[in-house]
Design goal:
12% strand; ATP binding; 10 helices; 3-stranded parallel beta sheet; 10 strands; 3-stranded antiparallel beta sheet; nucleotide-binding; alpha/beta; Chaperone_TCP-1; T-complex protein 1 subunit gamma
Length: 339
């Protein structure tokens, strides 16, 4: 809200906005500052110096005829009194991020000192400044800007839990919109992509002989977990549904068919209008493959350490060697003679 609600305007059309990040109050001394006052007049002189300094700051601001002054720091009562006399509306203790948004929306420049203000620093692209009460709090709006490059979204909810859920949904929606803008390619949802990739990997595995075909088959089976989970969430027969979907993709002309998340039936995702960003789908598959490889590497390291511990931790036999009569030809190569 504005600093002085009763005397400052809460609705300004075409405002001239000045943004500051400096305080409009007398600078306080450092921690070790001492002021020595000998006479009673010295105290009055000290107060008068402070008032003159604040008045000088307000006069420098008023010379550019702003309608709205916004600062990230505090404003003294004496400065508020001067602003009210000059017909200037003031807002104080604004966050840095909000001040940057106002600067981008209104075409203003944030000024660090009052004696550095220039006419080009005044924002004139805002159409309306208004203060509205929403619930129990007051919110200031700078709207109807000519070339806005920033905006704020106000969310409302019955409780904090509902509000947090709305915020998460909005964040996800904005992320999807950003991905589509950066990479406009889309793929059908409902597990259609996973089933199509699984089919392609199975065909690739059939053309390979030996154990090298098993990684293709394993990855293909792992990708089917997405449509399988969708079917489970719908409460339908998982085996029958996945079999129907696999048969549908085997035709070669139904690669856009997936599972309807509401009914559990297999349908064409293109007709239902269910799409997913291509960038997200590729990143998910890459992350899954990298996680699996990382776990395999860790498993190799741990198994190697356990072999070494087993090889060096057993007691030696009567002749000074480690003997395992039941090992046969499967003796670990890391088991060495005791020193």
């Amino acid at each position: 809200d504005v600093v002085m609600p009763g005397k400052m305007k809460r609705n300004i059309v075409k405002p001239r906005i000045l943004l500051l990040d400096c305080p409009l109050e007398y600078k306080k001394g450092e921690s070790q500052t001492n002021v020595e006052i000998v006479k009673e007049e010295d105290w009055a002189t000290l107060l008068k110096m402070e008032e003159e300094w604040i008045e000088n700051q307000c006069n420098m601001i008023a010379a550019f005829k702003p309608d709205l002054v916004v600062t990230e720091k505090g404003i003294s009562d004496f400065a508020v009194h001067h602003f009210c006399k000059m017909g200037i509306t003031a807002v104080r203790r604004l966050r840095k991020t909000d001040n940057n948004r106002i600067a981008r929306a209104a075409g203003a420049t944030i000024v660090h000192r009052c004696d550095e203000i220039k006419e080009s620093d005044i924002g004139t692209k805002a159409g309306l400044f208004k203060v509205e009460k929403i619930g129990d709090e007051y919110f200031s709006f700078v709207v109807d800007c000519e070339e806005p490059k920033a905006c704020s979204i106000v969310l409302r909810g019955a409780s904090k839990d509902v509000l947090n859920e709305v915020e998460r949904n909005l964040h996800d929606a904005m992320g999807v919109a950003k991905n589509v803008v950066q990479d406009p390619r889309l793929v059908p949802g409902g597990g259609a992509v996973e089933m199509a990739v699984s089919k392609a990997l199975s065909e690739k595995a059939s053309s390979i002989e030996g154990v090298e075909q098993w990684p293709y088959r394993t990855v293909g089976e792992a990708l089917e977990i997405i449509p399988r989970t969708l079917a489970q969430n719908c409460g339908v027969n998982v085996i029958r549904t996945i079999t129907k979907l696999r048969a549908k993709h085997a035709d070669g002309e139904s690669s856009t068919w997936g599972i309807n998340g509401e009914t559990g039936e297999i349908q064409c995702m293109k007709e239902l209008g269910i799409w997913e960003p291509y960038a997200v789908k590729v990143q998910v598959i890459k992350t899954a493959a990298e996680s699996a490889m990382m776990l395999l590497r860790i498993d190799d390291i741990l198994s190697g350490m356990s072999h070494k511990q087993q090889g060096g931790g057993r007691p030696a036999g009567p002749t000074g060697t480690q003997v395992d009569e039941n090992a046969g030809d499967n003796v670990d190569s890391e088991r060495q003679l005791a020193e």
